[in-house]
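EI: anyone free to look at a 146-residue chain?
SC: sure, send it
EI:
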Amino acid sequence: MWSSGKSQQLVVLARTTFTSSGLARGDRISAHRVTLRAAPLLHSHWRSALDQIAARIRSGNVAQPCASGEIVRRIGAIRTRLARDRRRLYQQSLFDGRPDTEAAQRQAAWQTVDTGLREALDAACAPVDDDGVRVEIVAAWSEHLT
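SC: here you go
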């Protein structure tokens, strides 16, 4: 802890957590260079300074993570493969209904998986509201120590 009353330059490591509809959407770790007007002398003043830094970092986090890259491509590939497999033709029997029953069960299973994938994609790209962004200061150290 610093005890001088003069200005203090810090490096602050922060973790920003994004949630939507109660589900964690992602974390972002970031480092920030901060200059305090005066280094706090008391522990409670440090806590207050770090809370203010966290609030400023939080307000600057407008760019929210969306699964626009790899997750969207992967889910798209899975759904495409699922649709291709779903189109397989099953020869119907005039005397035995088992293949029809099995095909209906497979169709129901595919539909369940497809619905789950669509819901996962919707959740991953859902907008995060202000209450869904939480910033936690993980570490802070003096700039001249680096």
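EI: The chain has a mean pLDDT of 78.
SC: 👍
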